[in-house]
Amino acid sequence: MSTTTTAGPAKMTEEQFTKLRQIIYQRSGIWFAEGKKYVLESRLTQRLKQLEMDDFEQYAMLLSIGPYREDEFNEMFSRITINETSFFRNQPQLDVFENKVLPILLEARKATKRLRLWSAACSSGEEPYTLAMMVHRSLGVRLPDWHVEILGTDLSQKMLLAAESGEYGQYAVSNTDPLILNRYFQKTPTGSYTIDPTIKSMVRFERHNLKDTLAARRHGEWDVIFCRNVMIYFDQPMREGCLKMFHQMLADDGVLFIGHSETIRLPELYSARSEPHAFAYTKAENEVSHVA
Question: Is 43 a catalytic residue?
């Protein structure tokens, strides 16, 4: 009697890990440190099964020279990053934005009536839509007189397509006040929630790699930049590169918001705002003081 053996899941060798993490870093700036091989392996093993590949060497070749490597990069990035987000996430920080930062900016921009917000690494769009709701209720009847531009960018085309659809499940709205939910969302027969068309029209989405500083600078100057919980994936050079790029693109009176587990140690570029739980930074005073 013969015995049939079933091969187990592919195991990633140290050499394959080195090769894959370098490919990932070169394309995205995301860095898998030594000892994180198991993380990369666990997040990509199912993908190898779907592609009917025997090992990670074949997968590295697909990402390097395969005819569909761009499509596969999109698929891979959605798997190796954690896209867990929701509306009104980290409410104390958002309160600082809405109640402290936004009123001052609106007053400063009353002559031009132009406001620009960038949500970098926005995942499936909850953050930029949240900002749009806050701007909408802050401006109220004045909104038609203003040119408000809110841009959400992400590396994953899959996440951006989800954002553009404007439809979300119960988890995404779990932190949303019922009054806001009734005002800015419509519940579908299937139990999901769709964004109010007015709010949806305030936000546009675009694929962007934070390593591509030239593409970012083409968008010009921003009044507020949100980049929360993405720089934790970067090594120090990549992190500093992003922060220097944000500094160049931030208005002199603008504000940068980062994630609660992230810090900025570039005193020559940034000063932390004093509000508790803000995780917000302005350009360093010595920089602003030199503006003519």
Answer: yes
